[in-house]
Amino acid sequence: MINLDFSFAVAFYVIVVLGVIFALWIIARKEKDKDLSLDPKYIWFCSVCTYTYINTREEKISTCPRCGSYNKK
What we know:
The chain is about 35% helix and about 15% strand. The protein has one helix at about 5-30, and strands at about 45, 50-55, 60-65, 70. Strands 1-2 form a two-stranded antiparallel sheet.
């Protein structure tokens, strides 16, 4: 039988849990760093309220989500 001190067992458990959390954080961070690019034709600028928004539909006229005014490219 292996004799363990209680404080050593708690410290070992905490280190293992923190190691797993750190490994999951590293894995999630690598997935987050994927190449995200946005075509400038989808970025719209409202001429009334100066709000910048994204509209992925290819239209010549877009409606501002904040003020509802119509904008054209």
